[in-house]
Amino acid sequence: MFVSFLYSLAGGLLGVLATGRLDEIAWRFVRLAGVLALASAALPTAWSIKSDGFALNSPHTLASGLGIAMAICAMLVVFLAPSGPNLLKLKRAVCFVGGVCGIIAAILSVPGDYSRLATGLLVGNELLAAMLLGSITLSWLLGHAYLTATKMTIAPLQHFSRVLSLAIICRIVFALVSIGVALSISHGGNLDGSTVLMTSVGLPAPIANQWLVLSLRGAVGLLSVAVFAYMVADCVKLRSTQSATGILYFGSVFAYVGELANLYLLMELGWPI
CA-CA distances (angstroms) from residue 269 to 33, 118, 216? Predict the structure, then answer.
């Protein structure tokens, strides 16, 4: 569970950073984001290699290989950070490649066998998880950077704040759609012209047993984060970076708890929410 979480965090950091205005961001912040992505990629990769080794045709082996590639991309970001606008396109490309590697590694690191429908939802689940984790982490890191980089404009924080708002909106919509599909299946619904058997996803009996984690996922990981994202957007409009940073500290903890709860539910139910 933690392996997939860290891969999502590292991939999200690099992927969301690739969308930012790197030419307007203090290079020390870019370097810090690269270091954090490197740590988040290297730790689960080392753990996976130590625990599982390298087994041919194993998803964990491929995930470890992608983790190594992501760590290399993060190191390149660290080294390229001081280069300024001259290598802007290269830095964006390296961040993008690292982000893609992280998301795929996170998908492959989720244990269990899933139905075709659940696997499709799993891809969207990990993509949105990386987007949310990356945007909220980069936002509070950047907010902290304003304390020392006083000449940096508000534009980069505005961008990451918008990405955070978009991420949490998509996350809530995804959760509602996923629950709706699960309920449709649980009542013998017909999807894509064929009846989906309950035994393929392990629903609905386990859902009733996970009401506490489901409440944690919804109230803390989605609704509370949405409130924090709204407050941050309001602070950014007022150019109050310190207030936004304080809110983001608390919001990031809620987001991390929510995504860990999501991974727990995924392993218990065989269904992303």
Answer: 34, 10, 15
> For the segment 192-235, what is each residue's pLDDT rounded down to a tens digit?
433 333 334 444 455 656 778 888 888 999 999 999 999 999 99
The total domain count for the chain is 2
Answer with the one of 109, 139, 161 that is the final residue of a domain: 109
Q: Same domain for 212 and 188?
A: yes
Domain that holds residue 21: 1-109
For 154-181, write each residue's pLDDT tens digit.
989 999 999 999 999 999 999 999 888 8
The CA distance from 64 to 70, in Å, is 10
- pTM to 2 decimal places: 0.88
> Cα separation of 255 and 80, whole Å?
30
Q: Are residues 144 and 92 in the same domain?
A: no
